[in-house]
Each structure stands twice: as structure tokens, then as C-alpha cells.
User: What shape does this take?
Amino acid sequence: MGGKLYFADADSSYSDAAFVIFGAPFDGTSSFRKGSRMAPDAIREASYNFETYNSFFDIDLSDVPFHDAGDVDIGEDHTVDQAISAVSGMVNKILADGKIPIMLGGEHSLTLPCAGASKAVYDDLGVVVLDAHLDLRSEYKGQSNNHACVSRHIIEDVTPRYVSIGIRSGTKDEYSLTKAQNITYYPADLVMDKGMAHILIELTRQLDTRHLYLSLDMDAIDPAFAPATGTPEPFGLTDRQVLSLIRWLAPLCAGFDLVEMAPQFDSGNTALLGAKFLREFIASAWVYRK
Ligand code: MN
Ligand code: MN
Assistant: This one.
């Protein structure tokens, strides 16, 4: 388990860091393929593949102050509510110290405390979720904090200033709810047709805020690029579309997470992609910091 392996180039001390990475190795409510509890270390391991120099932003990541705080303490028998409370404690501290939290999940239910803590700091917070799934169930398998319910909780308990991107799966009831409650989502098909640039313009207009929380459920991406997820769904976003979004939105982000990767279904490519997204997020957020 965590505590031994750290994300590449996260050489800053906690106190000097502008960004703090932490792992949340919990997949207790995962429904189809568990394994995201192993994702934090798989992503950390993959992070050593890359050069410290980022040519797109002309910046060397070894010059950017970021820290890996290791994993939050979630024992094997812990419930989702305990995991949420552990994540909440970590994120509240990082935000109170004026830093940007980056969570390596873990399952998607753990996004709720991150978005909630960010909203407490930035009242105008908007939440952007990348996902194949609507995640709008009120409960699933008897659990209200199941990973399939996270967007419902964000909208009802954190902020209605919410959009999701990459959607291509949900129940009829979930789709009805988007109509009844005017929930904005951009299906993967629409992103393909209109292009990510168009979606980014629309969503920034819609959310109308300078502060975002960004959650990347890795299954938003097509399984051809990211096969190792808990609930893979064909016909997703491309890796490059998500890269564009991260480069554009990172400077506005109060926090970021990457969830739902199940490394045992990987030949390494999903973890590499996740590690690279994280490095691009940090590079962009640092270069364009306010
Ligand atoms: Mn999800
Ligand atoms: Mn999903």
C-alpha cells in the first residue's frame, strides 16, 4: 500500500508546495470491476516514464513546487462513509493551507468531499465532471454514497453549477432527471461532432465562474485509449480531447481528481495516460497561475 512510492518530481516539501497530490485507495462500492484502490500507486509508478521538461508549456516540472502526501488512511474494511471522511479531512487541510489538492482515486464517490470542500472556499465554484455515466442515481445497491450516485449528490448537496462531459450511459430515469432539472451534460457524440473547443466555450459561458473543480472519471475516455476502468463504455472521448480540456481548464481549478482506474486490466497505457494528464494539469495550472 501507499506511503512508499511518490509521484515523479513531487520533490517539494508540503509547506512549499502549490499542489498536493494524495492517493485515496478505496473501491468499496465499485459495481462491475473493482481495482481502483490500486490505481494511486499504478499512476505514481507510471509517472517515472516522462521527462521533467514539458515542451508544450516550456516548463520543467522539477521547477514546479508540488508534493505527494501519500495515501489517506483507508483500511480494507472501511465503509464508503469513512473513506469520504478521510478524504474530506485531507482536502480541507490542503485548501486551508492555500494549496491545490489533486486526488488519485479510488472510486468516484470520493469526489463528493473534494467538491464540497472546494465549494466551502469558493462560493461561486463550478464543477466539471468527465464521465461516460450520468451518475445521477439517488442510491445504488442500497448505498446512497455509491460511485453511481456522485453527480446527483454534487448537484443536490454542493452546487447546481455543474456540467458533465463524455456522457453515453445512464438509465431512462437518469436521462429524465436531466430534462426535469435542466442538468447540462455534453454527450461524447456531441463532443465528437462539435469539437472540444466548442464545448469549452459553451461550458465556461454556462458555468460563469473563475473557480472550478475538475473530476476525471477515466471511463469518460474511450476504452481504446483507457481500457483499465471499473465500468468501461465504448465510443468515448479521445485522449487528445481530454488533454485539451485539462490544458484549458487547469488554471481555473481549485482542485482536480482522477478516479475509477482499475490497473489490473491495464497493460500500462491507462496509468501512463493518467500520470500524463496529471503532469499536464500541474504544468498548465502553474504557467497560468493568477
Ligand atoms: Mn463516475
Ligand atoms: Mn463512469
The chain has a mean pLDDT of 95. The radius of gyration is 17 Å.
